[in-house]
Amino acid sequence: QEQFVESGGGLVQPGGSLRLSCAASGFTLNGYAVGWFRQAPGKGREEVSCISSYDDTTYYTDSVKGRFIIFRDDATNTVFLQMNNLKPEDTATYYCVADQGFYAANLCTVVPARPAIYFWGQGTPVTVSS
């Protein structure tokens, strides 16, 4: 089963930046679509951003467009989420999920609709506060 280690979260002031990492364990991410999802306290899981299995096309939820960037590094078998101009409403635990044969927008739609069929790691917490 695909497993990941998420890291890079922390406490940051509004307007600050963080880079989250999703490192794959036991398999190569080449050929997988990968997505970042988040869950704020008291709320359900929501999609943040996904990158396609087939190319580097990406999807972003409206609230993070222009602020977050998802990209992959095949050499390190890692997918990153660069988060800039962070806002208090970005406070959440962030998780990564991967699956084969998806375009970016499709993965970001399917995963929140069917969370039980995917492996969810420990996530990495992000707190945006002054």
What does this structure look like?
This protein is mainly β and about 130 residues long. It has 1 helix and 10 strands; from the N terminus they run βββββββββαβ. The strands form 2 sheets. The protein has a 6-stranded mixed β-sheet with strand order 2-10-9-4-5-6, covered by helices on one side. A 4-stranded antiparallel β-sheet has the order 1-3-8-7, with no helix packed on it. The model has no long low-confidence stretch (mean pLDDT about 95).
The residue-averaged pLDDT reads 94
Main sheet strand line-up: 2-10-9-4-5-6
Count of runs of 4 or more consecutive helical residues: 1
Q: Count of DSSP E strands?
A: 10
Question: What percent of residues are in strands?
Answer: over 45%
Class by alpha and beta content = mainly beta
Task: Classify the helix fraction into a percent range.
Answer: under 10%
Name the shape in a single word: globular
Low-pLDDT segments: none
Radius of gyration using CA atoms only: 13 Å
| Strand and helix order | EEEEEEEEEHE
Give the N-to-C terminal Cα separation.
39 Å
Biggest pleated sheet: 6 strands, mixed
Summarize the helices and strands and which ones pair or pack.
Blueprint: E1 3-7, E2 10-12, E3 18-25, E4 32-39, E5 45-51, E6 58-60, E7 68-73, E8 78-83, E9 92-100, H1 104-113, E10 124-128
Parallel strand pairs: 2-10
Antiparallel strand pairs: 1-3, 3-8, 4-5, 4-9, 5-6, 7-8, 9-10
Name a few traits of the molecule:
130 residues; four-stranded antiparallel sheet; mainly beta; single chain
